[in-house]
Write a structure and sequence with these properties.
The structure is a homodimer of 318-residue chains.
Chain A (H helix, E strand, L loop, with lengths): L5 H11 L8 E2 L2 H7 L2 E6 L9 H11 L2 H5 L2 E4 L3 H13 L3 E6 L4 H9 L3 E5 L3 H15 L2 E2 L6 H17 L5 E5 L4 H13 L4 E7 L4 H8 L24 H8 L2 E5 L1 H15 L5 H11 L9 E6 L15
Parallel strand pairs in A: 2-10, 3-4, 3-6, 4-5, 7-8, 7-10, 8-9
Antiparallel strand pairs in A: 1-2
């Protein structure tokens, strides 16, 4: 199977329902007026473990056979996927081995540890991470749960859009941030399979535009580790299963500036009264920067996560 | 009528339903574990205009006869009540005259103006505010909508607890912050009339404990304008209609420290991923400071508002 059908997405939703939250979709008069559109914000910052990643992680973990599950799961991630996988594994009562680069922020290390993740530190860089992961998998028999290059993970991430369309059936657009492309694949599949006329737009930091480049080129293009403030989107290259799905189901991928991301983040904190991380502000930045024509339309935006360091807010930096 | 019955509260809920949001009740595994109780947070920071005040203001404005409404409404408030009243008046298409002390923060002045409120500045101090209000009422025929000493306002504020109990019927406790006592009265009436066995606890900053003092003394006690960081709770004295209701329906009023309020605010931002103002953190501070016995109980907390200056967060102050 190289893609997913609607039945598989719905089965994923049933599978993870006991383990995730039904997050609200918020609307806001002031933001609608300011942008000239009707906006619905799917609040995955309010999801368990603070991000949509709990959906994909739970679907992967609860898809395992008992024999597979007993050997645990392993992944490399310094961020929300690691915490979500550790949480999902704990819910199933199995070990989660998490490879993190040495020097990861203490807040992220603590977060993974708080869910019982077994942390192995490695050198920075994708090669070292993948090597450490492969070594752990070989030693323990644990199943690799890749953060985005995995159909079970993609199906889980798509469930956010199933719920979004249940709550706001008349959407014209769905927007989501693009890191490795796992959420974008799940979002696009759910949106197009449920409502073929809807338009799906991925939004990527211009500093981390590997998926936008790959989308246009028709082949996976790797870039050096990007320096965007959107720390959840600093991937080098989309996955093998991801690009064909993105090419088939996504209408466009647009890019936004770093200043736009900070402005969007601040505006959403102030008006929506939500703590969201920089990555989650990226789709709204596309509205601020008018990256496509959305006037008068119903636009759904996935607010992907809320895990942020409250000591260093970007608009307070000197 | 010196108090309110359940039918009046339910009528208020029906009256304001088209003009307010049904806010979610959030739960959080980590906070439940940390506090040893099951917590439900009623997210009035996600309410229209960013605070529960929209409930009382809408009930007051939409209770007016057409003849009364045509002459507008007037209030004195520098905070959320002013913005909520301006918004409610605009929804009904009538003028709202808002008396604000000279030197009010620009963010609050902008907020009131953004909803079309007609602002009159006065000298600081309750006397000057009331005099300016009375003068405007005499000149325009506008109806005074007091921020808390008003049964229509109290009925509106109580609707948050109607919804909270619909979503979490098995609550043992409801906690809310105490400023002038409008929310406390509405909360206590709704809670006790719907579920007589529930316990209602008001939480007040120790620096602004006029209602706690009045509750124990059985008479209204005024204090100098308090300096608490919880800017929404800096009232001098509860209202005439408020104290009898509080004495009849509230189980206890406890007080919390300034450090507790800041710690509670920070913990809720970090774990719930919500922007809440200091006043909204006051009930959770009572859990942090173990001001009553709640182990193993179902505790509802009203997160009252999210209007905060993002430039100056208390944990970043030197």
């Amino acid at each position: 199977m190289s893609s997913l059908d609607l039945a598989t997405l719905r089965a994923a939703h049933e599978r993870i329902r006991p383990h995730i939250k039904r997050t609200p979709v918020l609307t806001n008069e002031a933001l609608d007026d300011a942008r000239g559109a009707r906006l619905g914000f799917k609040c995955e910052n309010l999801q368990a473990a603070g991000a949509f990643k709990s959906r994909g992680a739970c679907n992967a973990v609860f898809s395992l056979t008992d024999a597979e599950a007993a050997r645990g799961v392993v992944t490399h991630s310094s961020g929300n996927h690691a915490a979500a996988l550790a949480r999902a594994a704990r819910l199933r009562g199995i070990p989660a081995h998490i490879v993190m680069p040495a020097g990861s922020p203490q807040s992220k290390v603590r977060n993974v540890a708080s869910f019982g993740g077994r942390i192995t530190f490695c050198e920075p860089g994708l090669n070292a991470r993948e090597a450490a992961c492969a070594k752990l998998a070989a030693e323990t028999g644990a199943t690799l749960v890749h953060p985005f290059d995995d159909l079970r993970v993609i199906a889980g991430q798509g469930t956010a859009t199933i719920e979004l369309l249940e709550d706001v059936p008349d959407l014209d657009f769905v927007l989501c941030p693009v890191g490795g492309g796992g959420l974008l694949c799940g979002t696009a599949l759910a949106a197009k399979l449920l409502k073929p006329g809807i338009r799906v737009i991925g939004v990527e930091p211009a500093l981390a535009d590997d998926v936008a480049q790959s989308f246009r080129a028709g082949q996976r293009i790797a870039i050096p580790t990007p320096a965007t403030i959107a720390d959840g989107l600093r991937t080098n290259c989309t996955g093998e299963v991801n690009l064909p799905i993105i090419r088939q189901y996504v209408d466009d991928i647009v890019t936004v500036s770093e200043a736009g991301i900070v402005a969007a983040m601040r505006e959403l904190w102030e008006k929506l009264h939500l703590v969201i991380e920089p990555s989650a502000a990226v789709p709204y930045a596309a509205l601020l920067e008018r990256k496509f024509v959305f006037a008068g339309q119903n636009v759904g935006l996935i607010l992907t996560g809320g895990n942020v360091d409250l000591e260093s807010l970007p608009w307070l930096k000197r």
